Structure formats: structure tokens, C-alpha cells
Automatic annotation (TrEMBL), chains A, B:
Plays a role in the regulation of phosphate uptake. GO terms for cellular component: cytoplasm. It holds the Pfam family PhoU. The lineage of its organism: Bacteria, Pseudomonadati, Pseudomonadota, Alphaproteobacteria, Hyphomicrobiales. InterPro entries: PhoU, PhoU-like_sf, PhoU_dom. It comes from Chenggangzhangella methanolivorans. The gene is phoU. Residues 23-111, 128-212 form the PhoU domain. GO terms for biological process: intracellular phosphate ion homeostasis; negative regulation of phosphate metabolic process; phosphate ion transport. Keywords: Cytoplasm, Phosphate transport, Transport. This is Phosphate-specific transport system accessory protein PhoU. Its main location: cytoplasm. Belongs to the PhoU family.
Length: 236, 236
């Protein structure tokens, strides 16, 4: 369906509710895929990884639907102020959720690619730990969005620094495993990217927090992310 | 400036031209920063890397301006068909260019972080090679967009597979350097991420190609990127 031949006849509030429903569906799916991609990595569950890869298409479809519906809403209702920010906020969050789905899919693709390679089980533990923290951040910020709770969004925004710090120590830990035993190098290199993907999921949760703040206050929270300083961003 | 208090009085064509000017500025800046970030990596030029990090802010500002102007254009002119696709296309491309700027900034941050570390010069050569190919793709697709040339866009879209193949062999090459000499591990791990950032810049060039096709034809090129198969995406 092209942007041109869409026929929405509902009122602005109906448009907004439909956007909210699709975003909630998208957010729930993202949480599911992020959790399952890491489970697949830890348990080396190839079928689960393949399901995650397949399900990411549904997230992409939802993002296209939200973009289309949001654009049509702006074109038909010409909303202003808070109404406009609600629609723009939905477009921005759908964009971040689509990226989160891609990152979960990338982890799942590595699980498939790693099948049969030498994989010391304990090494994936650190990745699972940072994933738990990141998933909690994602759930929290999506809840903050649903409630338009700028204070909870601000907390998520602030706590992203912890994920970055955890990622940086995990990065060093994985390098140590590589130096200890060259047989670890291939697997650890993939784990480095999995950890990086998870850290980036945290960044997108931070973007969502900034969008919640923008929707509520009408001004950007800040130009810089908490991680934007050179110290914590060493391993971007 | 919030989305609410913007006062555009120009005609739709003026709006479109202003969007085009800002996009051209953004595209030129992205090409510059991608090239300079890799130069900084190869030459270990810390001051250049710091300038890239600083300049990325300008790209972010342009993306916000384009989003704001594009949204206001849709709200005020309620364009349809090709007119609407022109605006939506500008919004999508600005989004990809903003990501490209981030990726160049990430490479530059690594250059700063790597300062003083053991860095065998020859190792960065492979990264420079994939960067040249990617930069050529970026220039080509931005030119294709300016001319609304869907055939050239399609060529860029097709050639992304070469960047992925090059990245995959570079990935294996860097792992070999790690196994040869543990002192290479730290530096090569950073190079792995630099190479990955460049490969992702290629993905965003591919996204731009898809947007050019969409603007011209009004239908999506495809749901999948050329790299979306599991073979070439082993190292996503």
C-alpha cells in the first residue's frame, strides 16, 4: 500500500490510538526478540535463532505501517503542539524499535553462523548479564512512554551509562579470553559483536527516553547521549 | 525551535528545494566525515579524529532541521502521490545520513581511544580498502538521488554485496592476525569494529538506494537487503 492510496476516515484521536496500539505491539515484539536472541546465543538454540530472524520481518512491517499512518495523520489533521509531538514521537520510537529488532536479528544470525564452532559455554555468560540489564531498560522506557512518564524516562536515560560501563569491562574480559587461548579468538570476536549489538539496543532505549521527554515537554532533552563523552564511548 | 512554532510561508516547491539543499549539505558532510575518519585511523591523526567527532553535531542538527521542515511541509501542504514521496524520501534519507555520520564518529572515537596502543600499520590497510569502496557507493547513491536516477540507485543496491564479501574476508584476516600474535588482539578488535562500522555505512547507502527507487516508482524495491541472506550476513 503506497502512502498515496491510504483512506483513513477516523478522527485524530482514533489515529493516535491506532498508532499507540501498533507501537505497543512493536515494543512487545522487540522485547521478545531481544530476550530470545540472547537465549538462543547462550543455549546455542539454532531453531530459536531462526525464529527470531523470521519474526524481525513483522517488526519491519509494523514500522512501515506506523510511518505510513503517522504521515497520513499529519497530512490529514495538520496537528500542532502536543498533538503533533505525539505523532512525531510515535514515528521516532517506531524507528528506534525497528533498529532494535535488527540488532536482535543480528545476534540471532551469529548464533546460526557459529553453529559447530568451538564455544566455551562460560564465555557467553557476560553477554547474557548485559542483555538482562538492557532488556530491563527497554521494558522500563516503553512503559514510561505508555504512561508519558518523563521522570521514569529520565531514569532510563541516566542508567544507560551502566550498560556502557558493563560493555566496556566485557570487551576487556573477552580480549583476555582471546589472549589466554587462541582457540577462543573466533568465538570471542562474535561475542564482542553480540555484546556491541546489545549495548546499541541500550542506546536506542535511550533514544526512546529522549523522545518521551520531547513529547511531554516539547523541547529536546539534550543533544548528547549520556555515553557521548570520550571516556565511556571508547569502544563505540 | 519546536515543531509547533515554525512559520513556513513558502510554496510546496520552495519547501522541497529547501529540503533538497539541506540534504545535499548533509550528504556532502557525510562523505567528508567518512573519508576523514578512515584517514585519521590509517594515519593515527588524533586532531583530525577529534574534528570528525565535533563535526558530527552539524549532521545531527541538519537531520533535525530536515525532519522539522519535512513534517511541517506535510502538515501545511498535505501533498499526495509523488509530492508526498519526495518529502518522505527526504526524511528517510536524512535519517540514514544521520546514522552514517554516527558511524564515522564512532570510527573517529576509536582512533582517539587507540592513541598510544600497539598498532602495526599494515593492519589498517584492509579497512582503508573497504572504506574506499563504501565511500564510492555513498557518493554514487547520493548522486543517484539528486538526479532521481533509479537505475544508478539499483546498481549501488546490487553492489552492496561486494562490500559485505570484502568485510567478511577482512573479518577473517583480522582474526588471523590475532592468532599470529596476541599483541595484535587489542588493536585488531578495534579494527573489527571499524570495519563493521564501514560495512554498516554501506548498508545505509543501500537504504538510500531503496528510498530513491521508492520515490521514483512509488513502491518499495524489496523487503530484504541484498545482504539479508544468512550466507553473506554471517558476520552482521
Amino acid at each position: 500500500m503506497s502512502l498515496a492510496d491510504n483512506h483513513i476516515v477516523s478522527s485524530f484521536d482514533d489515529d493516535l490510538n491506532q498508532l499507540a496500539d501498533k507501537l505497543a505491539e512493536m515494543g512487545g515484539l522487540c522485547e521478545k526478540l531481544v530476550g530470545e536472541s540472547v537465549d538462543a546465543l547462550v543455549r546455542r538454540d539454532i531453531p530459536l535463532a531462526r525464529r527470531v530472524i523470521e519474526w524481525d520481518r513483522a517488526i519491519d512491517r509494523l514500522q512501515h505501517e506506523i510511518e505510513e499512518r503517522g504521515i497520513m495523520t499529519i497530512a490529514r489533521r495538520a496537528p500542532v503542539a502536543i498533538d503533533l509531538r505525539q505523532v512525531v514521537g510515535a514515528l521516532r520510537i517506531a524507528n528506534d524499535l525497528e533498529r532494535i529488532g535488527d540488532l536482535a536479528k543480528n545476534i540471532a544470525k551469529r548464533v546460526v553462523a557459529l553453529d559447530g564452532q568451538f564455544q566455551p559455554p562460560k564465555l557467553a555468560g557476560g553477554v547474557a548479564h548485559i542483555a538482562d540489564l538492557t532488556l530491563a531498560q527497554l521494558k522500563e522506557v516503553l512503559d514510561a512512554y505508555t504512561r508519558r512518564d518523563d521522570k521514569r524516562a529520565l531514569e532510563v536515560w541516566t542508567h544507560d551509562g551502566e550498560i556502557d560501563a558493563l560493555y566496556n569491562s566485557l570487551f576487556r574480559e573477552l580480549l583476555t579470553y582471546m589472549m589466554e587461548d587462541p582457540r577462543n579468538i573466533g568465538f570471542c570476536a562474535h561475542l564482542l559483536f553480540c555484546a556491541k549489538n546489545i549495548e546499541r539496543i541500550g542506546d536506542h532505549a535511550t533514544n526512546v527516553a529522549e523522545t518521551v521527554y520531547y513529547v511531554v515537554h516539547g523541547v529536546p532533552l539534550t543533544e548528547d547521549r549520556p555515553k557521548a563523552d570520550l571516556v565511556s564511548a571508547d569502544f563505540d
